[in-house]
Model the fold of this input.
Amino acid sequence: MIETWHLKGELMLSCSCDVFCPCVISLGKHPPTEGSCQGWAGIRIDDGRYGDVDLTGLNVGLLLDIPGAMARGNWTAGAYIDERASIYALKALTKIFSGSAKGSTGLLSILVGQFLGVFQVPVEYENDGEIRRFNIPKTISGEIHPIPGRRKDENVVVTNSGYWIAPEIIVAKAHTSRVRAKNRVWDFTGKSAEICMIDWSGP
Done:
């Protein structure tokens, strides 16, 4: 049985593309700037529920390895769920981030060809002014900085996009971004990043 669910909060993403990743505008149809795309995402859940299961206050990490244009699929992905999650929250978030809960993340069930699994670990998501930091010990570590726009105190923002993650994306850059997980050793320092508020639901 698929329960009604929602997640509201914030997402940061760091990938191997040069600034700025073309997927936001092309909706995943344009090839990544490096031909393939590796990356990670961090999600902070400010308000979340799956049926009767409360997900508020939890953090999630995603590992993404994409062989070409995002829309073509055949992704390899893994999920890192906050160690503070109950067994019920763990099961709920697994359904949401595998796409089986349908709704906003349902595309993942089609795009992901190989799922590396779900790992319950410490997941840290920190806001320091406009700077975002994400950490999964010995796995993912990153610090993301928005790119300032021409007008003082305003960042570069993509608005009114059809991008499934969010309609408004803050263009950012990885001050530091490193991954060591599942035979993957990546460094995206200086590469493309993004920050956005999410409002996902299903089914």
Helices lie at 23-26, 87-98, 108-111. The mean pLDDT is 94. The chain is about 10% helix and 50% strand. The longest helix spans residues 87-98.
